[in-house]
Specification:
The protein has 271 residues and is α/β, with parallel strands linked by helices. Helices cover 32% and strands 24% of the residues. The strands form 3 sheets. Strands 6-9-10-3-11-12 form a 6-stranded mixed beta sheet, with helices on both faces. A 4-stranded antiparallel beta sheet has the order 2-1-4-5, with helices on one face. Bound molecules: adenosine-5'-triphosphate. It comes from Thermomonospora echinospora.
Length: 271
C-alpha cells in the first residue's frame, strides 16, 4: 500500500549568491511517523528547514503538501498549512506562565475577556496527552521549568492549532540523560497522535530511539531516505560523514538505494 506523505519536498535547490547550499534535496514526512533529518555540521539541514518553513524561498524543486503542489512563501503560510517549527531557542517567554506561552498571540476570548479556564484546560490536556508528567501546574512561569520541561511545553504548543507537521530542531541538544529520555517520549507521543514529525538531530542514540525513517544529508544533498529498521548506526554515520553507505556497488547499500534516492513519488509509504 502506498501512503501519500504529508510533506514531500523534491529536487530542492538553494543558493546564497554564488554558493549552492542545497542541491536536489528530497525529504518526505509521513503522518504518525518520526523522520530524522541527519547530517554533519553545514550539511544543509537548517537551510532546508528554513525553506520548508517559508523563512527562505527555494530556488528550485517541488513542495507537495498532502499530495498537492503548494507554494510556501512565509512562515504564516507554513502555519496555515499546519506546519509548526520548534526552533532551538524555543521562543518561550520566561516571565509568562505555561498557558500564556502556549496561547501567545492566539488567545481564546469569551466576550471581551480571555477565556482562561478553557485555555488552562486545553494546555493541561495537551501536556497530559503527550505524557508530560513532571509539570505540576500549567500556571507555573516558564522561568521555573527545567530544560526538558521547556522543550516539552514548546512541543505541546506546536501540537495545538491543528498542526500536521512538527519540525523539532535538536530538541535534546542541551539536555541531560533523564530529560533527554522524557523529551524523546514526548516526541514519540507527538507522532503517535498522528503528526508527521521531522526531528533534526546529531545524536544517533536519539535517532534510533524514536525515528521510523532517516533522511541523511551530505554536503547539501540527500544521500539516503531509509527506514530506521533497515540501517545500522554505523551505516548512518558513514552516510553522514562520507555521503556513502558501508556497502553496495555505489557505496550506498542496496536497500538504501531503493528507498533512498527516490524522489518522484515512487517510494512505498508506511505499512
Ligand atoms: N545566509 C547564508 N549565506 C551564505 N551561506 C550560508 C547561509 N546560511 C547557511 N549558509 C551555508 O550553508 C551551508 C549549510 O548550512 P546549514 O546551517 O543549513 O547546515 P546545517 O546542516 O544546519 O548545520 P549545523 O548542523 O551546523 O546547524 C553551510 O556551508 C553554511 O555556511
Amino acid at each position: 500500500m502506498s501512503v501519500t506523505p504529508v510533506l514531500d519536498l523534491r529536487g530542492v535547490g538553494k543558493s546564497f549568491g554564488p554558493v549552492q547550499v542545497l542541491h536536489d534535496v528530497a525529504l518526505s514526512a509521513y503522518a504518525g511517523e518520526v523522520t530524522a533529518l541527519v547530517g554533519d555540521n553545514g550539511a544543509g539541514k537548517s537551510t532546508l528547514v528554513k525553506c520548508l518553513g517559508g523563512i527562505l524561498p527555494m530556488d528550485s524543486g517541488d513542495y507537495l503538501f498532502e499530495g498537492r503542489r503548494v507554494r510556501v512563501n512565509s512562515p504564516r503560510e507554513a502555519a496555515e498549512l499546519g506546519i509548526e517549527i520548534v526552533h532551538q531557542d524555543l521562543a518561550l517567554c520566561e516571565n509568562l506562565d505555561i498557558v500564556q506561552n502556549m496561547f501567545l498571540g492566539r488567545e481564546w476570548r469569551s466576550g471581551l475577556v480571555l477565556d482562561e479556564p478553557a485555555m488552562e484546560e486545553l494546555a493541561a490536556r495537551t501536556l497530559t496527552g503527550l505524557s508530560v508528567r513532571t509539570i505540576k501546574s500549567v500556571r507555573q512561569p516558564v522561568s521555573s521549568l527545567s530544560g526538558g520541561q521547556r522543550q516539552s511545553v514548546a512541543i505541546a504548543r506546536a501540537m495545538l492549532w491543528d498542526s500536521k507537521v512538527v519540525v523539532l530542531d535538536e530538541p535534546t541538544a542541551a539536555l541531560g540523560l533523564a530529560q533527554t529520555q522524557q523529551v524523546l517520549e514526548v516526541v514519540r507521543r507527538l507522532a503517535d497522535k498522528g503528526r508527521a514529525v521531522v526531528l533534526i538531530s546529531h545524536n544517533m542514540n536519539d535517532v534510533f530511539a524514536v525515528a521510523d525513517r532517516i533522511c541523511a544529508m551530505f554536503l547539501g544533498s540527500t544521500v539516503a531516505q531509509v527506514r530506521a529498521s533497515d540501517v545500522t548506526h554505523a551505516q548512518v554515520v558513514e552516510l553522514i560523514t562520507s555521503g556513502r553507505g558501508a556497502d553496495g556497488p555505489s557505496g550506498v547499500p542496496a536497500r538504501m538505494n531503493g528507498v533512498g534516492r527516490a524522489r518522484r513519488g515512487d517510494e512505498a509509504g508506511p505499512g
